[in-house]
Every structure is written in C-alpha cells, then in structure tokens.
Design goal:
The complex is a heterodimer of chains A (293) and B (257).
Chain A (H helix, E strand, L loop, with lengths): L1 H9 L25 E10 L6 E11 L4 E5 L6 H8 L7 E6 L2 E2 L7 E5 L10 H11 L7 H4 L3 H12 L15 H13 L5 E5 L7 H18 L2 E5 L3 H7 L2 E5 L6 E6 L14 H18 L1
Parallel strand pairs in A: 3-8, 3-9, 6-7, 7-8
Antiparallel strand pairs in A: 1-2, 1-4, 4-5, 9-10
Helix pairs in contact in A: 3-5, 3-6, 6-7, 8-9
Chain B lengths: L2 H26 L10 H10 L1 H35 L1 H15 L7 H8 L3 H25 L3 H9 L4 H38 L5 H10 L3 H29 L1 H4 L8
Helix pairs in contact in B: 2-10, 3-4, 3-6, 3-8, 3-9, 4-6, 5-6, 6-8, 8-9, 8-10, 9-10
Classes of the chains: A alpha/beta (293), B mainly alpha (257).
Chain lengths: 293, 257
C-alpha cells in the first residue's frame, strides 16, 4: 500500500478551482525516476511458427513532463509501445517501468485517448468526461459526494478550456467529430494523469479541425505538464507538438532515430510553414521513405 | 396530420377492416357458428361470460408474469456470465442451443410428472420458453463492447466489475429490452400451452373445455383475450424501452441542433 501515499498526497481533488479555470494545476517536482522506461522490451504475439514479432527489443526512456511523438510506417509497433506503457500488454522479454516501478504497480496515473472518441452514447458529455473520476483513486472515494459539486465544476472548467462549455449537457451524437475528440481529450485529462497516452487521436479529422486541436492540446500540455506519449503518422503533428520525435522502422519495429525538437513552446501554428520546420519534417519523411523500401 | 399519426390511423383501420371482413364473409358465405363464429357473436359472448372468464384471466396473467420474471432473472444471470467470459461463452453455448431447440410443448408432460398439473407447470413452461432469447441478447450485448473503450477503462485501473457496471450493462440495455418484448409474448405462449394440457384453471383451460363442449364462440373469446393481454404487455415493455434506452434510437425529434 505504499504506492497510495505518493498519489494521494499530490492530488486530492481540489475544491472548486474558481476563478482560474485550471483544475488542479500541480507543481511538478523534479523526479529522479523517469516516467517511462523500456528496458530491452520486446513483444511477440503467438508462438511457434505463427509467432509475430510486433516489437524488437527496444530501449526508450522518457523523463517526467516530456512530450514524445512516435512516428513510423503503419504496423511498425508504435501502438505496441503505447500498449506496453499503459500495461494493457506485457513485454515478452525485457522490462517496462513506469515511474521507476513495474507497470502493474500503478505508480503513475494514466490517461488515454484513441482515434475513436469512444464516448458512451447514453451519457451526456459532462458525465462522459467525469467517468474517470468515478473509477480512479483517490477521486472515486468521494465521487458520490462531489459529482454534483466539485467534480462537476472541475469538468466544466476543463470543457470551457477546450471550448465545449455550452455542450456539457449534450449527448455525444449531437456533437461533430472534432468536438467529440476535444471531449475525448478532456476525459483523458480530467483525473490529472501523470502520463497521457495518445494513439493517433486526430487521425480521423479534417486538416483545419486537426490544427485547431493541436493548439488545444499544446495549451493543455503546457498548462498541466503531464508526460505525453503521442503515436501519430502525421509528421507535422509530431513536429508541432512534441519535444522529442522517435522514428520507428517497419515491422518488426525498433527505434532508429531519436531527435529533440528545439523550437521553444508554445509554438504558433504558423511555425509549420517556417523553413526550419519544413526542413525537419522533410528529413523525417526521407528517413521513413528509406525504411519502407 | 403527421406521418406517425397517419400510420397509426391506417393501422387502426386495418384492425377494424379485418374484423369487418370476417363478419361480412361469415354472413355472405353462410358459415356455421360452430365452425367460425362472427366477431359480433364473440364480443357478445365475451361480454356476457366475462365474470366467468375474469378469474381465469388473472390466473393466466399470474402464471405468465411469474414465469416471465423468473425467466428474466435466470436469463440475465446466465447472459452476464457467458457474455463477460469468452471461455464460459464457448463452453456453455452448445448446451444452451441444445436446450433452446427442444420444442417447449415437449417439456410440459415432464413438468406435470414432477409437479402435478396446475399452476406450477404453467409457470415453469412460461419460464423456460423465455430464457433463451434473453440469454442470447444479454450475452451479445456484453460481448460486443468496443475494445477501445475497454482499453481506456482498463488503463484507468477499472476492475472487471466496474467495466461491467459502467459500460457493459448500460450498453446491453437496448438488446435486453428487445429481448423482453419477445420474451413476454413467448411466456404467454408457454403458460397457455401448459394450461391447455394440464390445468383446471386459466384461459388455456377455458378454451380447451369450451371446445370440447362446442362453445366455439367462447373459444374465440379466449383467443381475443389472449391477444389483448399480449398486446398490452408488449406495449408496456415497448414504452419502458423507449424511456430507458431512448439514446439508442436517437429520434430526430429530440435532437438539439
């Protein structure tokens, strides 16, 4: 039970975070232990002749508060790394440590969002976003008491931050794809996770909506500073949002390039047309084109 | 007149037209009332014999509803069990299909053998006949929960019970209510079936006795009563369904744009 002391100490639900619309912005102490550490972790599905190596032994380290984008050809094991980090699958060999401990120890609180917004159709947006508070410790302890008070305010504050304030009482099918994805981000962040895992969250959106959401995600990230692992196949998305970009080879995947993005944050959307940015994405593109051959 | 109202009117006219045609054909073709009584005769019989019919109506309703409730409890339990576990699903499914393919009329003699004639076999028949559609629907609803959504909840650290409670069961509600509408009508069939074979009470028994006494219009009165009860219960569960699972039909009239 010694894990609970750490978690509950830093994030007891904050009472009604008015007037500043930032639910529980937390100071980020310099943590000696990295948020995610893959030590020669590999993943093999199946066994015998039918065994498929989804991920070659990979070593990857992410410091707390970092924003890493994983890019690479489809089927290269990007999502596999994400599923390792979220403890949905276990490595076939090697170790996966979260916050310096075994992933199963739940040292870190995790938020996750996929390309499919997966909102529950029978709940309003407000209640959908509130769902993690019903499930994650320590929030669930006072859920019955706070769901109409502090938690509701918390949800509304976050929805306001992404421009969905007026849609809290709407049902998912009444919202557009971009709005649903914003609500999805809110649901991934409402419980103030240490680790935010995003699997091509904007893949199904049109270009304008996508750029709009990049900016929203950037604001949310800079505001809360979780550790973010973003899987994407959009090089500009990776370049605009991330502090670090890892390129993966085709299956069986492994990381072949690991570069920092030095441009200061917050970045303006116009940056994606600047020569430096274009040069960087061009470099990534060539790298991936080589792998695919 | 709105589209919905027009359809309702047409549906009503169809029912009236059906009985009118029946009446007219009986008169024109001079059909004996020992073969097919006219609707007007049936209604008269229904009216005059209603005090005699009433306790039997209650009896049938009681058997049906008791059997139905038991069937729902058992069906939901089995459905949840095999819907949440892939192993249980694979293991139990063949046996369930086997059970469901037994003609339910064949189990009545067995129940009579075990429990004697009367209310108990009627309740049990109503129960076994309605279990299977409920099991299948609950299991299907649970088994088809989106994997992405389950992953999101698992990463939050949700237990199996929490996933079932927050996602699985609400998602299954439309399937469940669809199966209730089927199950309630089947329960009726089961109860009446058993009453016909082995009981001295209930509408089924009334119809059996009446037919052996050539009181043909009373037989048909029994049929009408059964049909009306069936429609009433179906309508009740339809209403309940629309209230509980309105989100699944997302009618345009409640959309906010």
């Amino acid at each position: 039970m010694n894990m609970t002391s750490d978690i509950s100490a830093k994030a007891m639900p904050t009472p009604a975070p008015q007037p500043a619309p930032q639910p529980a912005s937390r100071s980020n102490p310099v943590h000696p232990r990295p948020a995610i550490e893959l030590q020669d972790a590999s993943v093999v599905f199946g066994s015998g002749d039918k065994a498929v190596t989804a991920l070659s032994p990979t070593t990857l380290k992410m410091e707390r508060g970092d924003f890493l984008a994983l890019v690479g050809p489809s089927g290269c094991g990007k999502s596999t790394i994400l599923r390792l980090a979220s403890n949905l699958i276990q490595p076939s060999s090697g170790n996966v440590l979260l916050g310096g401990r075994e992933a199963a120890a739940k040292e870190l609180r995790i938020g996750m969002a996929f390309q499919n917004p997966t909102m529950l159709p029978w709940l309003t947006i407000e209640k959908n976003v509130m769902l993690p508070l019903k499930i994650v410790e320590p929030f669930k302890r006072t859920f019955q008491r706070d769901r109409k008070g502090a938690y509701r305010d918390r949800v509304h504050a976050l929805l306001e931050q992404v421009g969905l304030k007026d849609f809290a009482g709407h049902f998912p099918w009444q919202l557009s794809g971009g709005m649903l994805q914003r609500a999805n981000l809110c649901r991934a962040l409402i419980h103030d996770p240490d680790l935010l895992l995003l699997d091509e969250p904007f893949g199904a959106l049109d270009q304008f909506t996508r750029e709009e959401l990049w900016q929203i995600l950037q604001d949310l990230y800079l505001d809360r500073k979780p550790t973010v692992l973003l899987v994407t196949h959009d090089l500009r998305e990776a370049g605009f949002l991330a502090r670090r970009i890892c390129v993966m080879s085709a299956r069986p995947g492994r990381i072949i390039s690991d570069k920092a993005v030095t441009m200061p944050q917050p970045r303006d959307i116009g940056v994606i047309y600047s020569p430096d940015f274009v040069e960087m994405t061009q470099g990534l593109r060539e790298l991936i084109a080589q792998i695919r051959k | 007149m709105t589209e919905a109202n027009r359809i309702r009117m047409m549906s009503f006219s169809l029912i009236i037209g059906f009985f009118l045609l029946w009446e007219v054909l009986c008169i024109v073709l001079n059909v004996s009332d020992l073969v097919l009584p006219r609707p007007s005769e049936i209604i008269v019989t229904l009216w005059t014999r209603f005090p005699v019919l009433w306790p039997h109506i209650l009896q049938t309703l009681y058997s049906t509803l008791t059997g139905f409730v038991l069937g729902v409890i058992i069906g939901v339990s089995i459905g949840v069990l095999i819907g949440t576990s892939r192993v249980a699903y694979g293991v139990a499914y063949p046996l369930l299909v086997g059970f469901s393919s037994i003609p339910k009329v064949a189990v009545v003699p067995i129940f009579v053998l075990w429990f004697g004639s009367g209310t108990t076999p009627a309740i049990l028949t109503a129960m076994v006949i309605c279990v299977f559609p409920i099991v299948v629907n609950i299991a299907t609803g649970l088994a088809t929960t989106e994997p992405d959504l389950e992953d999101v909840l698992k990463t939050l650290g949700a237990s199996k019970k929490e996933i079932l409670w927050n996602v699985g069961l609400p998602r299954t509600m439309p399937y469940f209510f669809a199966s209730l509408k089927v199950a309630i009508t089947l329960s009726f069939v089961g109860a009446v079936l058993s009453e016909t074979v082995a009981s001295n009470r209930g509408i089924g028994n009334v119809m059996m006795t009446a037919s052996s006494n050539f009181q043909v219009s009373l037989v048909f009165a029994g049929l009408i009563v059964l049909a009306l009860m069936g429609v009433a219960l179906y309508a009740f569960f339809s209403f309940l369904e629309s209230r509980v699972t309105g989100w699944a039909t997302r009618g345009n009239d409640i959309a906010i744009t």
